[in-house]
Amino acid sequence: MPIVLKSFQREVCDGILARFANVRALYERTRLMEAPQRSGETGKIRRNDAAVVLQAPTGSGKTAIACTVLSEWPNDERVLWFWFAPFAGLVEQARITLRTQAPNVEVFDLDSDRRLEAVHAGGVFVCTWASVAAANAQARRARTRSDAGQSLDDLIVQARDAGLRIGCVVDEAHHGFHRAKQARALFTDVLAPDYALMMTATPRDRDVAEFEHETGYRAGDAGDWASVSRHDAVVAGLLKRGVRTVRFVAKDDDEQQLVDFEQLALRECSAAHRQIKAMLADARVPLTPLMLVQVPDGKAAQGKAAEYLTGTLGFAPETVRVHTADEPDPDLIALANDPKVEVLIFKMAVALGFDAPRAFTLAALRGARDADFGVQVIGRIVRVHALLQGRNDLPEALDHGYVFLANAESQEGLLSAGAQINAMTTQAPELGTQTVFTVSGERSAVQLVASGAPLALLLEPDGASHVEPVTDAQIENPADDPARFESQLQAMQPLAQSLFGEAFAPADGSQQASPARDARIAPLLLTAKPKTHAYALRVDVPELKTEWLPEPSGEYELRLADHVDFNKNVLADRVRDRAAMRRMESDVFASESVGEGGRDFWTELSPAQVADHAQKLLCGIADAHQREFRLRLLERFARAIQESGAAAPDNEEELEEQLDLVLVRNTKLLHEARKRVRHADLRVNALRLPREFGSDLPLQRAQRNVYGVFPPDLNPDERRIAEMLDGHALVQWWHRNPNKRPGESVALYAWDDGDGFFPDFVVAVHGRETPHGIALLEVKGQQLWNAFKEPDKAEAAHPEYGRVFMTGHKRNESQFLLLRKRGDGLDSDGDFSLDRLKWTQ
Asked: Which is it for the CA torsion 533, 538, 542, 545, positive or negative?
């Protein structure tokens, strides 16, 4: 029995029929034209008006509307339709829906009905793009003659010759079939549909623009589309009132990476699933709810989720099913509807296009952050099951779907999807273009004019009315101008002669270039090496001092372990294996929180996550042998526990787990030990700058630079500072300090536990109370003001030259600021002035 369309669905359906009726009228008005002109105008109508976009939230009746369009098509026009399902698993489902909703439309079999006598009265083939437009055996059979019938290509030609029109219904059109070369060719060159209905739950302007560009068919903008609003579908009882997202945030940021959020999402989702199951049972609804688990690609992720569900969470193995196919197929549809299945695990790659009306809950493990992901997630759980439609006595909780996010940032995609779905309004499509006959003297032409568009009043001699666009090829390119090219070659001639001598001089003494010589100039210009320019060091530059950190000495791992401060407060963390969490719940359609500020709870830390993070901390001590260091650390840890008056675990695995907990809860513990050890090795060495500085290119002269030039490796900010230094009377001389050049760079190591810091400039300042008046200056771009370790450099101090000055400016501002460390970042300590360099504070 066909479904009676709701009033809002009826409005959209009637609008689509009216739009296609207008297109049909355009075709009919061109029938009286002569054959060549008629063919051209028909093609123009197809491209301008044949494609209609139907956008509607999943579950709001797109398929029912499309089936009714086919069912109510005028009997006096025969149309051969091709209904393209997004995946093979949905072909039979579409066939069943068509037979139910459009019983007067013949549903053909692609294998046996490729014959004109079978399709002469019109009807519909249901298929996928892959079955007719791919380089596989099934597609080749459909596109070649055989005992089963004509090739699809021949059948379409014969159908057109017999007076049939060709129509296309593309389900989930946002999949971008038109990007695939074979599908695009089938659509544009073989089908060339007279009517095309493009259905989508995730409309995007860029997808429509790509469709128009690839196929030549115009789909218009959102104002031209047929559309269904979520509100109308909710009021009609087809969709749940809302979808709530549940995300989890650790109250301590340091604990965020120690929690297994995938297991947490599964635990909370299964609890909600069991509550919903109990509610349905209490309401005497004979329905087993379905919990969906969306995992990343790969059998390992699927297996891990299944093992946790059947092991820790106690689901019976036969109630948990894993779908592993690359595309949705009949098994997936059957699983989604099998009441014995309570949990369905599927890959993100197959999140599109299958219905699961039993689903109330979904655990999204590592979901994407874009709106397309959000629309597909919402679509899986937003439908109202037929057994619940019309029931007003059910708990309010059953009128919502619930998404539990392992990745809290995925909420961005869900909220974007909610806003996108909310923006849809119920509307019929625009009628499109109108046919206007223009007569000018003895000439006439057909114009297809969109609503509000101007008419062309002047006709070309051939009767057409158009304006030729200017193409890129018609725009003159100066590089292709022979005269311009010749002048460029002549301009190069003196340079070539200066580099390579008279070999490139014209034989007649003129400046006229010759092709043979021109061919020699270009490669030789590329390989020529100018002379090296040398710049001597000023005689008044003294010996400099630099910190130096030698390679670690023997028994380094033992020294490190002995310097780790396992005090009582640190040891207390060895049994702190829980994290304080906050559960945040929002409605994706309301964009507001549910409840006040969320709910706090405790969750166990993941031993695997803790061990992994602890290992990263150990690997951060890069100059230590990892295995040796861990062994020494375990021995030291066990002694520290015993010395505190407690008993160390007898089990080595338990001891390692406790050590990992201590390390991850005290992330600076190892680095502080390393700093103690390495600072004991720190030395201050003398440094003499090279007597000469060489450059392949001549450099701009500088008055106060130690080599008398501006170095070539300065970025724009450093160059501005260098010019300030060079022009200030307070500066005796300045030097660009090279980065990480042993024997040439002034380095600081005491500021950290081993990393070198090489300030940008060494400056001798008149009146500064340091040896030779030397100050150190670093220029820092704003993008680094909050970067890891960078703010600490503002507190770095040289043993003789004092604290390093740091300067930089904010984006879109020119004034340089003196920067100091405040909190975890750099901030202004007033405008930067070279006068500040006189003072050590």
From this structure: negative
